[in-house]
């Protein structure tokens, strides 16, 4: 009886083992490896290996199961290549060696992955675009409307359910890594390095893609560390170190006047920006086609001597030859900045230059703590055509607001204390735009003899039609239909308490 039980138990475990092996085989758990050197690739830094790489890819892609294309240690010269799917199973490209690009600038992308599902690209190797040889031929800096960008180092087009990780990318001719029409892609542990003065060498560029996650990347380049273009939805950027570079940017948007633009669902968290020319930036052209930018959350961001730490620029014109009276038609709304701290290297720490045609709406600022590390005056913020609220700590703190005329019919309320929002100044009050007078919020200064007025399309908080704040009967906030003129000067602002 005992012997029969032992035999039955052994038979049971044999059956389980057989079933596990059967399932593993059926699901392709055992990968087949395709070493590029077996196809004739030579890692001597001289011979072109594009044909050998493509043959290895084609065999790996056609394997009916899991496959791994292996690039061993060595230096592999590579002309432009396109790794195209669909493939029959999961496919990995393991880059252990270093890849060096040719000087060919006739293509959009040097290394292209297209129409692939369940792709893994990793290995710890280096992708060297050798951009220094051709950066002098970049013309997009001077002509953004009509230009031919230099080649992308690594482009992913129509790629889904995939991961790109553990790579070093250096000196791309143009953008280092681009996603276009991708879905459910994770980018993590990518190190990108290019000189600060290298033109248009964005780190990661994302366009017309959905459910993208960027994690634990270190990016130093000559343009945007991460750039989000039109058509993106649900993008997460966590634990990214940026700098030097142009910051984490959305846009530029509205470049093509006849096309609509939409970017929704961006979450940027636990990132640091060091020595960047911008921090967190949204940029749209004016004029532009219609569009929407919405549902953005920036939180727990550390600025280390960043220029323009928080900036919305809806008059984006890098060439400087645009019509400054034109307005963007792209609405920016439901944007939150939370726990932004560190140092600004420019006196304007927060700048919202929104469209007069479609003002920014539903902006929230919570716990902004920025200090100015420079000698060009006091730290200040500027605002045009934005509605919203702020909460919690707002730094720098103090008690003076300086009304400065811009000389163009609009002014700036700059502060050495709180982040203050509004367009004020003698010239502005004498040239109030239609519809800005009625319903505008009015501030009293301490001596109650003069009022500071904020235009109704540039207000923060529930300030309209209020009779008082902080229970001070002398400092009233009320609606007005008049636009009195006030002299430029320094006004004491007693206590905002996140009021605007």
TrEMBL record:
Pfam families: Glyco_hydro_28
Keyword terms of this UniProt record: Cell wall, Cell wall biogenesis/degradation, Glycosidase, Hydrolase, Lyase, Secreted, Signal
Signal sequence segment: 1-25
Molecular function per GO: lyase activity; polygalacturonase activity
SMART domains for the chain: PbH1
InterPro entries listed in its UniProt record: Glyco_hydro_28, PbH1, Pectin_lyas_fold, Pectin_lyase_fold/virulence
UniProt main location, coarse: secreted
Gene3D superfamilies xrefs: Single-stranded right-handed beta-helix, Pectin lyase-like (2.160.20.10)
Domain of life: Eukaryota
PROSITE patterns: POLYGALACTURONASE
Gene Ontology biological process terms from the UniProt entry: carbohydrate metabolic process; cell wall organization
Subcellular location: Secreted, Cell wall
Active site: 246
Similarity-based family: Belongs to the glycosyl hydrolase 28 family.
Protein name per its UniProtKB record: Pectin lyase-like superfamily protein
Organism listed in the record: Heracleum sosnowskyi
